[in-house]
Amino acid sequence: LPAEAEASQKLFFIQRSKNTDEVHYDARLRADGSLDEKDPVDCYWINKGTDGGKRASITFFQKTAYGYDVEPTGKESWALKLKAFKDRPMWIVKAGGRYRVQTTIAGKNAYMSRLYVATDESGVFPKVLYVDLFGEEEGSGKAIQEHIVKG
Question: Are strands 5-16 and 108-120 parallel, antiparallel or unpaired?
């Protein structure tokens, strides 16, 4: 973490059909609990299957699939665009005393907790078959999910 950042707070993570390794996205916090506006997201691997659960950096090449862009949109709100999921608007917001990713899941306002990406690895490049989004409905806190078939 940069010197001015003190802690992080889980935003969401991505699981894949390829293996049990996960890509994690955390809010990078300052000592006062505010989001580090210079570098608000900490993205990294948890290598569960290949390296005993150790943390590893995202490589330059991997950023084409797992990278993101963050842009401030107002007080305590940032637009988040995942490189591989550009068509789904997302925002980092402070809700319930912590930072979360707000989006729509199954047509409802929700806070996303994870994505599952199923791929066909038989070709030169992996092909996304479907994506499952998981989270909780804004307001009720009820578990919600959406299945998106790619094609």
Answer: parallel
Secondary structure class of 64 (helix, strand, coil): helix
With cut-offs at 50, 70 and 90, classify the pLDDT of residue 74: confident
C-alpha 43/C-alpha 66 separation (Å) is 8
Asked whether the beta carbons of 50 and 27 are under 8 A apart, the reply is: no
CA distance 110 to 112: 6
Amino acid in the structure at residue 42: D
Query: In one letter, which amino acid is 17?
Result: S
Q: Who's near 75: CB < 8 A, 6+ residues apart?
A: none
Give the pTM.
Answer: 0.90
